[in-house]
Amino acid sequence: MKGTHPSPRDSHSSTAVGSKLYVFGGTDGTSPLDDLFVLDTATNTWGKPDVFGDVPAPREGHSASLIGDNLFVFGGCGKSSDPSEEEYYNDLHVLNTNTFVWKKISTTGVSPIPRDIHTCSSYKNCCIVMGGEDGGNAYLYDVHILDTETMAWREVKTTGAELMPRAGERRARHIILLWGM
């Protein structure tokens, strides 16, 4: 591998954008991070692009989903003003993958409560957020959908057997793994 690669980390997001892999945030085991690295898989070269705009606060356990050329980053946790405490987020930021400009997005509707280690999948023009952990160590089982054209959230009211609360689930292309913790 060539170029400037990310430092060791966990709880980051990795999102495929064409032949590139966007790695954002996470933690080095001591502090949450807010850096962005891009791996060009065609040339096996890492880069650390200059980013502009409203960069999200350092965070780990967030989600990232791609819709068009936009990378939607939701939630996660970071340090509060008291460094011994964590702050859980339910904010939404979008990175334009062509210009590397971040925007903090104002939304309407019923947004998910602050959380980390949730999953967020994209389908057409929507981001679907499910599960995670709230700031009180409770696992969640709710489902929210963000329409990225109107930036409006809605909570999905489900029927039938209730999902068990979960966190740490993973997804890939057409597969969602629901086991989690």
Automatic annotation (TrEMBL):
Pfam families: Kelch_KLHDC2_KLHL20_DRC7. This is Uncharacterized protein. It comes from Selaginella moellendorffii.
